[in-house]
């Protein structure tokens, strides 16, 4: 209709008539609502040209066309160009109409949006604050435009990580809109959905789910199942469910959003591609790697077709595909993706563009993961020097890249280098962003992890305590980052032998997580399992038994009885029972863990072998020597094959097998096993410690002395190992906390308990 009206007015009234120009404006607005941004851009451009010829550049109608053009450019993702137009319109309107005129405030608002989408959150927040202040003054608190400014300011504050302030803004906007409109009005539903997103950012997933379900129900009723806003709510609900660990439910939501968007918007629309990416993540979280790869490849192909290979969304999809290929260990895929990303960015951007340099760093990460250290170091140093030269040492992008380098070095165990880079990144972010910024706290957290791995526990504890306080202030106690800092503080206090303080921290963290996420969330169950392991280390076996049983019930419900995490907790329960001399119950749990691990992971998997070893120990304690011997032999054979003769777990299997043979009075074979254990220990220790074992190895074995000498040999093996570093290599370590140290700090771990 607008096109027909425009054609008639152009023919009848002429191109420069004000009614013709109004039709151009109306057509542009309609095309913008339909997301036909190129047409929406061209219409204001035509109107602007005509109005510039008809009026001066500061004429109100010309300024309206300038502002409309800025909005259309932003709709195309050309936020920098849009910002220029909005600034031009704002200057003209301030001059012609005054600071408080509604058109001026429209330009202020639109400029804030353009700045927001460029990541200029601090400036955007200032602009939205200005719009809000003037709208409150001229229009009143309850005006629709004022409430829009409240909502927009909340969105920008959320992007700055200021979730508590953002929540206040969104709740004020919602309260005002609820007074003004019916409960199913589109403005109310927008506020509800935005509030849900903010609650999600705070880690208040239950509250976020309630908001997103409310927005979805309202939009289904008022707009219909297939409306774009309805599908937006469906997708948001899926994301909240995913964050709660409800991956199968999230998958259902994403599939629904995807089907609706394909039908309404087309296969290559940005919203459709976003649903494809989100669905891929949900599939990945369920370990459906093949399906996830298909979805990521589809998203990448769609982005290439729609935006071209050089567009940031195409590169983002390629990065997601890269992550899936890493998860599947498809190294050939990694070799293809990274050069593709870097080459694409090189064609699209300036030589020192941050996106090109980020591609350099991503390639360096891959080289490091493939142990190509020299090549990786060259890439990192070149990239960092170029970044600092192009942007300056304290530019946020340079600091982000520095932080990425630090995290990679940390993951690879190169702690001295990581510490130096962490300190540089932290100092830069404190200077540029402030000590309480979310990115600054991330750098501080990385420094704490680095110090922890170097055994600098006192300084690490101070850092974790500081990051916990900062994140608690910034995000609130329920946010995942706050909880992560809390748990890392607990790990560090455990290593400083502050056992009671560590236990208090874990109980507190578990309570907070249960309140925030619900008792069946995977993160809650992981923390519950970890708390059980800590109680085992503190020899509080009855409490450990109770918490392990709770974790098993939750994991069976959410993950299934055969899931690896469920089996880990079953194994831990077995240890809690064994240490209470409930050996028969321990045997039942160890046998279940063994059978599940064998089915899920395979007979030669490290976890399966650990379960066999533990089951053998439970059988041994009950005097079931024949089956215990059989299990120990299976564990030993598997460990020799998988881990090698000199591995600490292989040596432990040797010694335990020797013990069973000794108690069966099979002294000859027990002697062979013990001698073999001594020889392997000697080989592992090296040439510096041969003398302490030699006297025992040359003892004559008379029949009457067999039992005594075998015991001496066994004791001497242990005492020899206690005299050097090998004791920690072979004896019973705090295996229970290997899980939490990996999960919360990043130490490589062995997932099942190994009992002595």
From TrEMBL:
SMART domains (alphabetical): TPR
InterPro entries this protein is in?
Answer: NLR-like, TPR-like_helical_dom_sf, TPR_rpt
Coiled-coil spans in chain = none
Q: Source organism's superkingdom?
A: Eukaryota
Which SUPFAM superfamilies does the annotation name?
TPR-like
Query: What name does the UniProt record give this protein?
Result: (Perigord truffle) hypothetical protein
- What organism is the protein native to? Tuber melanosporum (strain Mel28) (Perigord black truffle)
């Amino acid at each position: 209709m607008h096109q027909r009206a425009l054609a008639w007015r152009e023919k009848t009234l002429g191109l420069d008539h004000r009614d013709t120009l109004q039709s151009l404006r109306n057509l542009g607005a309609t095309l913008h609502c339909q997301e036909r941004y190129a047409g929406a851009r061209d219409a204001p451009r035509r109107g602007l040209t005509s109005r510039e010829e008809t009026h001066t550049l500061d004429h109100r109608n010309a300024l309206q066309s300038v502002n409309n053009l800025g909005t259309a450019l932003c709709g195309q993702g050309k936020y920098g160009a849009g910002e220029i137009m909005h600034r031009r319109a704002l200057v003209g309107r301030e001059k012609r109409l005054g600071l408080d005129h509604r058109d001026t405030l429209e330009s202020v608002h639109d400029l804030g949006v353009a700045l927001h989408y460029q990541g200029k959150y601090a400036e955007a927040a200032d602009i939205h604050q200005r719009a809000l202040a003037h709208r409150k003054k001229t229009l009143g608190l309850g005006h629709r435009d004022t409430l829009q400014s409240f909502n927009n300011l909340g969105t920008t504050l959320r992007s700055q990580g200021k979730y508590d302030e953002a929540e206040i803004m969104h709740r004020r906007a919602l309260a005002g809109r609820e007074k003004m409109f019916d409960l199913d009005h589109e403005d109310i539903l927008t506020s509800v959905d935005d509030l849900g997103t903010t609650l999600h950012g705070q880690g208040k997933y239950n509250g976020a789910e309630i908001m997103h379900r409310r927005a979805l129900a309202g939009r289904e009723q008022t707009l219909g199942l297939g409306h774009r806003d309805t599908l937006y709510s469906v997708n948001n609900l899926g994301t909240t469910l995913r964050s709660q660990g409800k991956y199968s439910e999230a998958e259902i939501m994403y599939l629904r959003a995807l089907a609706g968007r394909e039908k309404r918007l087309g296969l290559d629309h940005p919203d459709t591609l976003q649903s494809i990416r989100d669905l891929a993540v949900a599939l990945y979280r369920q370990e459906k790697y093949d399906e996830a790869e298909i979805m990521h490849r589809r998203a990448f192909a769609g982005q290439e077709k729609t935006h071209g290979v050089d567009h940031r969304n195409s590169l983002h999809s390629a990065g997601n595909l890269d992550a899936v290929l890493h998860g599947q260990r498809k190294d050939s895929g990694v070799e293809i993706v990274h050069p593709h990303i870097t080459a694409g960015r090189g064609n699209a951007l300036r030589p020192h563009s941050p996106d090109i340099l980020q591609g350099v760093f991503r390639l360096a990460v891959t080289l490091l993961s493939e142990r190509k250290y020299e090549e990786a170091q060259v890439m990192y140093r070149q990239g960092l020097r170029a970044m600092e030269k192009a942007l300056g040492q304290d530019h946020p992008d340079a600091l982000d890249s520095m932080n990425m380098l630090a995290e990679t070095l940390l993951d690879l165990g190169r702690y001295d280098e990581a510490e130096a880079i962490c300190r540089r990144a932290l100092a830069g972010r404190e200077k540029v962003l402030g000590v309480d910024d979310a990115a600054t706290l991330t750098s501080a957290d990385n420094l704490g992890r680095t110090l922890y791995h170097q055994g600098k526990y006192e300084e690490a504890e101070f850092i974790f305590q500081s990051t916990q306080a900062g994140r608690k202030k910034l995000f609130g106690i329920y946010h995942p980052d706050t909880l992560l800092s809390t748990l890392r503080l607990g790990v560090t206090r455990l290593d400083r032998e502050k056992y009671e303080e560590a236990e208090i921290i874990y109980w507190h963290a578990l309570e907070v997580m249960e309140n925030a996420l619900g008792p069946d969330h995977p993160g809650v169950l992981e923390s519950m399992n970890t708390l059980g392991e800590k109680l085992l280390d503190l020899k509080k076996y009855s409490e450990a038994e109770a918490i392990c049983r709770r974790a098993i019930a939750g994991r069976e419900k959410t993950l299934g009885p055969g899931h690896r995490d469920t089996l880990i907790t079953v194994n831990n329960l077995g240890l809690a029972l064994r240490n209470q001399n409930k050996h028969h119950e321990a045997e039942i749990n160890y046998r279940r863990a063994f059978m599940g691990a064998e089915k899920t992971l395979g007979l030669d998997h490290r976890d399966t072998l650990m379960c066999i070893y533990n089951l053998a120990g439970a059988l041994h304690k009950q005097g079931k020597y024949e089956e215990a011997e059989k299990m120990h032999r299976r564990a030993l054979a598997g460990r020799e094959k998988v881990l090698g003769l000199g591995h600490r777990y292989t040596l432990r299997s040797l010694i335990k097998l020797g013990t069973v043979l000794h108690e069966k009075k099979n002294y000859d074979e027990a002697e062979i096993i013990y001698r073999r254990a001594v020889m392997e220990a000697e080989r592992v220790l090296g040439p510096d410690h041969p003398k302490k074992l030699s006297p025992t190895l040359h003892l004559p074995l008379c029949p009457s002395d067999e039992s005594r000498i075998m015991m001496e040999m066994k004791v001497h093996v242990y005492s020899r190992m206690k005299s050097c570093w090998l004791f920690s290599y072979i004896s019973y370590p705090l295996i229970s906390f290997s899980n939490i140290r990996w999960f919360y700090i990043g130490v490589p771990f062995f997932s099942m308990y190994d009992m002595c």
